[in-house]
UniProtKB/TrEMBL annotation:
Residues 50-153 form the TonB-dependent receptor plug domain. It comes from Paracoccus denitrificans (strain Pd 1222). InterPro entries: Beta-barrel_TonB (IPR000531), Beta-barrel_TonB_sf (IPR036942), Plug_dom (IPR012910), TonB-dep_rcpt-like (IPR039426). This is TonB-dependent receptor. The keyword Membrane applies. Keywords: Cell outer membrane, Ion transport, Iron, Iron transport, Membrane, Receptor, Signal, TonB box, Transmembrane, Transmembrane beta strand, Transport. Residues 1-23 form the signal peptide.
Length: 662
């Protein structure tokens, strides 16, 4: 970020800080009573305490306070979630409880935005305008969501037009980067609302090319969104249409030799990309009184114009999704969600003299039911049926034509028991399915082109606590899962391809704690887990077994801690909120041979926010305060004469941000 823009933010902040402030109500109470927290991702209002499973939540203010600007940043907040930029954000790896998304075209962790599934290539996207909250639901969620999710779901929710502020802006940055966001909404007629948002996230270059000194490694992401909502007062009908476009220009796919990590010098191979995505959505909700009927239609098309290590590998994909869902009203002896899902995607990739095209159609029926057997005991049952078909062709150096289909039934059964109004125990067994297919990355080095479906069985038991006034929340859970015919990319980077590699077993324990007591706020969690190959057989390495090795990108330990303190400045002066955030990611491996990886490391974030009573917030922030050097990806580049090369995470950034809502 240039100094003139940085100075502009500072001047604007001082201007708003000096403006007359209206009186602000303050409380001298030592305890802030909190309302019941409901899980949006449960598809019907459900108390987080009674939900039979592990769920983590954070609202927009909490995410902003930690400097979380994108979905990929959520691992700084949620324990057990690890997000690693695997070459680029397009192929980001989301790992949840040992379930790594090693197939980056069909990830085990799904991301939903306002009920619509997102293309795997945009999972790490910048948050949309009017962000309300983000949730993580751990474990298979196929009985709740149209698109199956073996590892879990990240559910991002925004305020609908007519529910948010009339106008808001955010402007901030550091010496290297800057962010800007603008949002406004307008009532066009009775019951008809519109809103728009514009945003830019400019992440500056942080590496230099060996030999030339050229600055590289930066990314610019632009986002524009327009939404219309028709929701007459007193009417059971609520319709929202959205249209958005994202444009990314990046040179982040840079790699550093092991001997040049401290110098942050990238090897001199051309690597850059642009990624354009258009997204459209139509959501219709109709309140029947006894239930709500919902129709959710989504369409996304994307074009990845990519050069990696001097090789040109562009991709195109179009995806249409349709979900019909019926969600019961709350309060009865039985509550349920039932739905139908359809997806149609067309994919094309050009690389290494071959063109790959695939058309995939998916159908699913799903349902989730809670029976309140007594005033303390709930019985939960769910099921999902999947059917998927793929037609694949390849022309050029490698030729191929094939088609196949797969289907599966995935059940779920659990219990939730209220020991006391403050304590809840639960246990659940669930399953997930990931269809087979044809690898999309074809090269003459491929030994095989098809792969079989993968199935996962997951067991979980846990204990939750919430104090009567809601100021203290805690949970502990143990899980165990087995995946048969595990799918992952094998072979030599960057010419890898998808195959089955055998059986993976993941087990672990996670614990969370949240306290809001007087001016103090504390939230944190820790996880221990093992995710290992308990049987290994790959076509890429016949006769070679990695049984007993750790699954790539699955850390054994993770920990998160955030502490803040609210200091009231007095009537009309607002309040100051200093904060500190710590996140730890344990050792991870980047390959199944466990030959190249990253040791565990801590990241420290800090900040000081001045919340003014006129709606403005001035925030001084620091990310990676200790300037930790760490790798998010690496591979053996001996074929290029380089040895092991790594992609580095961002270094220290100190900046200022001004936000105001009207």
């Amino acid at each position: 970020m240039n100094r003139s823009l940085f100075n502009t933010v500072c001047v604007a902040a001082l201007t708003f800080g000096a403006a007359p402030l209206t009186a602000q109500e303050t409380s001298n109470d030592d305890v802030f009573e909190l309302g019941t927290i409901y899980i949006v991702g449960a598809k019907r209002p459900q108390d987080a305490l009674s939900f039979p499973g592990t769920v983590a939540q954070a609202d927009a203010s909490e995410l902003s306070g930690r400097g979380v600007q994108t979905v990929a940043d959520l691992d700084r907040v949620f324990p057990g979630l690890a997000v690693d930029t695997r070459s680029s954000r397009v192929y980001s790896n989301f790992t949840l409880r040992g379930q790594s998304s090693l197939d980056y075209y069909s990830t085990s962790v799904q991301v939903y935005v306002d009920g619509l599934p997102q293309d795997p290539a945009v999972l790490a996207q910048m948050f949309p305008g009017a962000l309300e909250s983000a949730e993580v639901l751990y474990g298979p969620q196929g009985s709740l969501y149209g698109r199956g999710a073996v590892g879990g779901v990240i559910n991002v929710t925004t305020l609908k037009p007519g529910e948010g502020d009339r106008f808001s802006y955010s402007l901030g940055g550091s010496e290297e980067s800057y962010q800007a966001q603008l949002r406004g909404e307008l009532q066009l007629a009775e019951g008809l609302w519109a809103d728009f948002s514009l945003a830019r996230n400019d992440v500056g270059d942080d590496l230099q090319v060996m030999g030339t000194g050229e600055d590289v490694g930066g990314t610019v992401e632009d986002r524009a969104q327009l939404r219309l909502r028709y929701a007459p007062e007193g009417s059971p009908l609520d319709i929202t249409f959205s249209a958005a476009c994202n444009e990314v220009e990046s040179s982040e796919e840079q790699f550093v030799m092991g001997t040049a990590l401290a110098a942050r010098q990238a090897v001199p191979f051309p690597s850059k990309y642009s990624h354009d995505t258009n997204s459209f959505g139509l959501t219709v909700d109709y309140d029947l009184g006894w239930a709500t009927f919902s129709s959710l239609t989504g369409y996304q098309d994307r074009f990845l114009d990519r050069t990696i290590f001097g090789s040109y590998t562009p991709e195109w994909q179009e995806t249409l999704t349709q979900e019909f869902r019926l969600s019961s009203a709350t309060g009865g002896p039985v509550e349920y969600v039932a739905g139908l899902f359809y997806s149609n995607s067309e994919f094309r990739r050009e690389a290494y003299g071959s063109t790959t095209t695939q058309k995939t159609e998916s159908y699913a029926a799903f349902g989730d039911l809670t029976w309140h057997a007594t005033d303390r005991l709930d019985v939960v049952a769910g099921a999902r049926w999947d059917f998927e078909t793929t037609d694949a062709t390849a022309t050029g150096v490698v030729t191929m034509r094939g088609s196949d289909d797969w289907n599966a039934f995935s059940p779920k059964l659990g219990l939730s028991y209220s020991i006391t109004p403050e304590w809840q125990a639960y246990g659940i067994v669930s399953s997930g399915f990931k269809a087979g297919g044809f690898t999309r990355t074809l090269t003459p080095a491929n030994i095989a082109y098809t792969y079989d479906p993968a199935t996962t069985w997951n067991g979980e038991a846990g204990l939750k606590y919430r104090s009567n006034n809601g100021t203290i929340e805690a949970s502990v859970a143990a899980y165990y899962s087995v995946t048969e015919d595990y799918q992952m990319f094998v072979g030599t980077a960057p010419a890898q391809y998808l195959q089955n590699v055998g059986e993976v077993t993941a087990k672990g324990i996670d614990a969370t704690l949240r306290i809001n007591q007087g001016p103090w706020g504390l939230s944190g969690g820790a996880t221990w887990g093992e995710s290992r190959f308990t049987d290994y057989d790959s076509s890429a390495t016949p006769g070679l077994s990695y049984q007993g090795n750790d699954v790539p990108y699955a850390p054994e330990f993770t920990a998160r801690l955030a502490v803040d303190y609210t200091h009231e400045l007095g009537a009309g002066r607002g309040r100051l909120i200093p904060r500190l955030g710590l996140s730890y990611q344990g050792d991870i491996w980047f390959d199944e041979a466990n030959s190249i990886g990253q040791d565990g490391y801590w990241l420290v974030d800090a900040g000081l926010a001045w919340e003014m009573s006129n709606g403005a917030v001035l925030d001084l922030y620091a990310t990676n305060l200790t300037d930790e050097t760490y790798a998010s990806y690496g591979f053996d580049a001996s074929s290029y004469g380089l040895g092991d090369v790594y992609q580095l995470g961002r270094g220290r950034e100190i900046g200022i941000r001004l936000t105001q809502r009207f």
